[in-house]
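pinned: reference chain
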Amino acid sequence: MSQPRLRAMLIVLGCLAGLPGTAQVNIEALRSPQDSAGWHHQLGLQAGLRQGSVERRELGLSARTQQTSGRRRWLSIVDLEAGWQDDDRYSNQGLLHLRVSQQLTGDLAVEGFAQFDHARQRRLLARALAGAGLRWKWVPRLFVGLGVMAETERNDLPPAATHAEHTRHLRGTGYLASHQQIGRGSLAFTAYVQPRIGTLGDRRILAEGTLAAPLSNFVGLKLNLRLRHDSRPVDGIDELDLRFATGLNIDL
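pinned: its structure tokens
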């Protein structure tokens, strides 16, 4: 098969076989590895279609903007996803994330962040959080982050639910992140742990791996695997959520 035809086939597969991931977007996977000053923009597109006994359609759109000036870096992320099963919407989620990083030394930075999101399939009507922490480059391309965040959630509970409808918690947040070049492509992996301060049995774990391969100078194919575990989910929601997604990235 010729190289242009192979690339065209990969683009079609990326557009048609995608499955949107979880609402808990992995911010580390969306950082640009580019350290040069200036603006960097990227669009992500995902679309899925499943036919048979059940008809399912899924769409996803993400946009990332990063600006680097001297020792300071700004990052903004918008992520939207929706899904329909037999003409009934079963998934509707969105996220806005803002983050600023200030480099203190060559290996150490301080960060501040805020996030607003909702996820219908997890019965999350609204969530807002704000926090700060440190980011340390352990070795080249391997980073460790530690911080604290305050969050508030409003949930859509089923009848006779035991979970609180409104919650306000203080959580610790820690992550290990790596971004490696593989030929012309790249492999990124991140693992988050977010325990509730004072109640360590209430914790969230997020792990994600992303393999990206360029199809042209501006378009790339992305394969993504996400795992999300919540030790105390809302009534009717499983503790473990595992998703695989494919899609396209467009650099602007």
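why pinned: The radius of gyration is 19 Å. The longest strand covers residues 166-182.
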